[in-house]
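stage 2 :: seqdesign
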């Protein structure tokens, strides 16, 4: 339960940062995507029971704050999770460069799935030109963000209430 609450708090904080302070950084079409990095980390390192519920929660919360039709983020995140789980035994993702590479692929996959869903749900083909031009830069930004955030997330989801609230002890001279 602590794990879910802490990760839900991370997701909410990430969405607040993405949609307020970091909304226009570095540019309008490219953004810091902390939730996508968390979805990738959950897909790589957590067992399905712990990962899927959080991925659905992250997707629903992303859909709530997004201007896109509802369920685009949820479906995209679940497709990413399914793709990673299908390939997990065949790929190397532990090292720095491998993690950068796979996070870039995951970012591109997210944009492609979102683009296809938007085209199917809205019936217009206006999205590909905007999304395709920003895809490479978004993939590089997401990969760089993953180098920092995935080690942090692996430490963060191991926290417990005891570790958070337990005093470190007094240092006496």
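stage 2 :: out
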């Amino acid at each position: 339960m602590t794990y879910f609450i802490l990760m839900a708090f991370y997701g909410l904080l990430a969405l607040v940062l993405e949609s307020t302070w970091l909304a226009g950084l570095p540019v309008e079409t490219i953004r810091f995507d902390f939730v996508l990095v968390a979805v990738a980390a959950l897909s790589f390192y957590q067992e399905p029971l712990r990962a899927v519920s959080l991925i659905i929660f992250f997707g629903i919360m992303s859909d709530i704050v997004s201007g896109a039709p509802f369920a685009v983020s949820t479906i995209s995140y679940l497709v990413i999770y399914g793709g990673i789980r299908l390939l997990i035994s065949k790929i190397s993702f532990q090292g720095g460069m491998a993690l950068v590479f796979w996070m870039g692929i995951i970012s591109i996959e997210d944009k492609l799935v979102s683009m296809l869903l938007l085209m199917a749900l809205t019936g217009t083909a206006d999205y590909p030109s905007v999304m395709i031009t920003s895809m490479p830069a978004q993939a590089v930004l997401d990969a760089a963000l993953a180098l920092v955030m995935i080690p942090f997330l692996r430490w963060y989801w191991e926290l417990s209430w005891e570790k958070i609230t337990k005093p470190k002890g007094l240092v006496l001279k």
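stage 3 :: structure notes
- The chain has seven helices and two strands.
- Strands lie at 26-27, 30-31.
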